[in-house]
Amino acid sequence: MSGVLTGTGQDQRTRLRHTEEILKSLTLTMRSRTLYPEGHPLLTTSSQKVIAQMRDHLEHDESWTIVLLGGEFVYDRVPLSRLMPHVQPLYKTLAGRQIDSLTVRKGVTPAEIVAFFGLVLAPHEIWDKGGDPMTALAGVGIKNLIIQRVDIAKGGAIVSTDTDEARDIYASLKQALKAFGLSLVDPRRTPTLDLLNQLRDRLVAAMQVDSFAVASRLHTRHATDDLFAHSINTAIIAYLASRAMGVSPTLLPDVVTAGLLHDIGLMDIPPKTRDGVVLISDDNRIYVEHPIRGLGILRSIPGVPLLAEIAVFEHHRQFNGEGFPHLADKRAMSTAAAIISMASIYDNLMHGSVYTHPEQIPLRMIKMAGAEFEPRMLAHFLVALGMYPPGTYVQLTTEETALVVDASRGDVFRPTVKVLRDRDGNDVLEDRQLDLTERDPDTGGYHASIVRSVPPM
Fold first, then answer.
1. Is 407 helix (H, G, I), strand (E, B) or coil?
2. What pLDDT digit, counting tens, does each position of 185-200 carry?
3. Helical H runs in 12-60?
4. From the DSSP assignment, how many helices (H) and strands (E) are in the chain?
5. Which terminal residue of the chain has fewer beta carbons within 10 Å of its beta carbon, N or C?
6. Cβ atoms of 217 and 307 closer than 8 Å
7. How many C-beta atoms surround the C-beta of residue 220 within 10 A?
């Protein structure tokens, strides 16, 4: 969730400056409402200042809108928290009142401004009665200053690149996996996948809307022995690769389930923890037996997809017949298990004890082709993710800093990127995306290339 200022008729930097001025004035006005009674001259003065700024902004536009979609305001998909830290009290107050969108139309009056802030700062019970801001506004006489609901998940007109939702899903999944693990050893509880399936579906839905916001969570460092962070990363990587490789959409939720549960057999019974984190067992016997242990756990729980059971059992088998568990017939590894295996190793390389640049990971995995991995399957997997997976921060030959948003099927070294900072280190305000496979029609050369990946900003 994020926030957006919309409007036309002014260049972006001018609109950004107006945005900052108005949001700062709104914050100060709300602060005044907590200090002075209604009708106080200072309150009237601050309201009139807001109105004057809004009218200036509305000179060429019919309306001015702030959309509140998360933990910060975003201007044209660019987070503004670094530019305007002073507006966070305004966000918190509006979000606490379940206000999704604040629209100011031409003709707004000082009385409407005062009435609006009077309602915003009113006790929670006023808002809780109707459950909707419009109910709380009924009868107040606010006409030009309105509150409205917005839907950002449709049409693509406004798409959040803020990772608040992804962060929440990630944390919720870790808690659900931990609860699931503890239920396995608690005789008073019956293990169930209900909550896990709900969060899995939420994760899949989030990746369908904004996969690169979710994928960016992969770059948040986790300890090498953090069982469930590794499991969630494996699920995300497996989903991204499976979707790009053409796996049926109906099977993608099962692929995610397989990723979430693939190492459940590595949990000690009772589980070892450190600072609340469930750790991967350091017992070598458990490590060798964990595919069999994991399958046994899943077969005792109703509703586990067959694809997940197979992937859990097979994900440590290898293309050359080695690995474990050892099977006499040397049958081929299932596609799902192969994807989970590659995704698991990819995350292990990304989060090893020494930081590995994303572009080095495919090169290290290519060395495993023909032994651990079937070469063509590995090639499809790496092409699907690209040399720089979504969420990777990179430096361009233009000296700009960018964020990878999508892999290129034609050239794994040339993904689509979103430029975040210019060569001078200034934040880029517009939504500027570059397809690095595109060439200059005059020179035939590429517009830009990636020099190297850089640590997350």
1. coil
2. 887 888 888 888 988 8
3. 12-35, 41-57
4. 15, 13
5. C
6. no
7. 15
**Does the global pTM surpass 0.85?**
no
Please answer whether residues 349 and 367 qualify as being in contact, where contact means their C-beta atoms are separated by less than 8 angstroms.
no
**Residue 252, CA distances (Å) to 204, 230, 238, 257, 297 in order:** 8, 19, 9, 9, 22
- Give the span between the Cα atoms of 267 and 62, in whole angstroms: 59
Backbone angles phi, psi at 66, to 5 degrees: -110, 125
- What residues have CB less than 8 Å from 163, skipping those under 6 apart? 213, 214, 216, 217
Q: The tokens of 130 are what? A: 């109707």
DSSP state of 369: B
Whose tokens are 């396995």? That residue is 184
Buried b (16+ CB within 10 A) or exposed e, 391-418: bbbbebeeebbbbbbbbbeeebebbbbb
Give CA–CA dist 391/407, Å, rounded.
10
Tens of pLDDT, residues 329-339:
666 788 999 99
CA distance 405 to 210: 9
Which amino acid makes up residue 8? T
- Residue 8, Cβ density class (10 Å: 0-12 exposed, 13-18 middle, ≥19 buried): exposed
